[in-house]
Specification:
Largest sheet: 7 strands, mixed
CATH architecture of the largest domain: Alpha-Beta Complex
Mean pLDDT: 95
Bound molecules: zinc ion
Shape: globular
Order of helices and strands: EEEHEEEHEEHEHHEHEHEHEHEHEHEHE
Strand content: 15-25%
CATH class of the largest domain: Alpha Beta
Distance between the termini: 19 Å
Structural class: alpha/beta
Low-confidence stretches: none
Length: 344
């Protein structure tokens, strides 16, 4: 079979590797599609660590092709993957926060991921129920969004976004726009997207943003949308430090600010601490998602037709290296590698 391998920052290549066979408890997944995440690009740029020689890709969907002895599931079942391997015993695991387990390993970084014809799902991951059934009628590149959508649901839940509650999203890239789509689905509003790129602001408007504004116009527009109060919830969906003080300024008293995007190593910024004390603005981060949100996400992806607008770039496995180039060149929004006939 063919697989994309990450060798070192700046070097990935599609190579021929031996056909894998599942061992006891393992599941062989024939990959249908794998999304390329901004964090995969950060690995490529040397900003985030991954094992040398690993197959990247943690946003995986496919069908069960073979089962090792005693493995759960049935051949032919279509699933999306929660790519997190955890100990199952620590306090985080017990509380459902498998994403916070200190011995967490993730497919696509520590273990082979999904940018390949097949991926062997480790026995522990299969046993934990991390192969989540998903409607086979949903296109593969949409099913590959179960992981990123779960991350967004974690963000929106942590921000306490509810029907009719105003939301500001700083950053109109793919993850910011998935925030917009999911929050609208949940009935939140008005929703303002802050984004310097005019084309992306246009997409945000088409996807139903009440306002899509450049950063320099954000404070005035936000005040107008919220009757001068500011937003109860602000998601920072861009890994740029100066976005954080802006997000803090957009928040109302008692508002919540979630640092959803990862930042370059060592990123720091000065903040007005009295917004935290006197105005009781809560600032926190979310990364990945607790396991139950994967199930919610797997049910939801098929109900969000607007997600079609997010996966703008699709590549065959042979073209997988170009998917990185497109992201680095900020071409389109999200990229997915679709195995077999494109988009099928
Ligand atoms: Zn991701
Ligand atoms: Zn654990």
């Amino acid at each position: 079979m063919k697989a994309l391998r990450f060798f070192e920052p700046g070097r990935v290549a599609v190579v021929e590797v031996p056909d894998p066979a599942p061992g006891p408890g393992e599941v062989l997944l024939r990959v249908h599609a794998t999304g390329l995440c901004n964090s995969d690009v950060r690995v490529y740029q040397g900003e985030k660590k991954a094992a040398a020689g690993v197959v990247p890709g943690h946003e995986i969907t496919g069908e069960i092709a073979a089962l090792g002895a005693g493995a759960p599931g049935s051949v032919g079942e279509v699933v999306s993957v929660c790519p997190i391997l955890c100990c199952g015993r620590c306090s985080f695991c017990r509380e459902g926060y498998r994403n916070r387990c200190p011995s967490r390993k993730t497919l696509g970084y520590d273990l082979d991921g999904g940018i390949a014809d097949y991926v062997v799902i480790p026995a522990a991951l299969a046993a934990m129920g991390h192969l989540i059934p998903v409607d086979p009628a949903t296109p593969p590149y949409i099913r590959a969004l179960v992981e990123p959508l779960a991350c967004v649901l974690n963000s929106l839940e942590s921000l306490d976004v509810r029907p009719a509650s105003p939301l500001a999203i700083v950053g109109g890239g793919p993850m910011g726009l998935i925030h917009l789509i999911a929050a609208r689905f949940m009935g939140a509003g008005p929703i303002m997207v802050v984004e310097p790129d005019a084309a992306r602001r246009g997409v945000a408007k088409e996807l139903g943003a009440s306002a899509a504004v450049a950063p320099e116009d954000a404070l005035a527009a936000g005040r107008e949308l919220t009757g001068g109060e500011g937003f109860p919830a602000v998601a920072v969906a861009v890994g740029l430090a100066p976005a954080v003080p802006l997000a803090l300024d957009l928040a109302r008293r008692l508002g919540r600010v979630n640092l959803f995007a990862g930042f370059p190593p060592g990123a720091s910024h000065t903040l007005d601490l009295n917004r935290v004390h006197y105005d009781e603005v809560r600032i926190f981060g979310t990364q990945n998602a607790p396991f139950p949100l994967y199930w919610r996400s797997a049910r939801m992806v098929g109900e969000l037709p607007l997600l079609e607008r997010i996966v703008t770039n699709r590549y065959t496995l042979a073209e997988a290296a170009s998917a990185y180039a497109a992201r680095l060149g900020h071409e389109g929004l999200k990229s997915a590698v679709v195995m077999g006939p494109r988009g099928s």
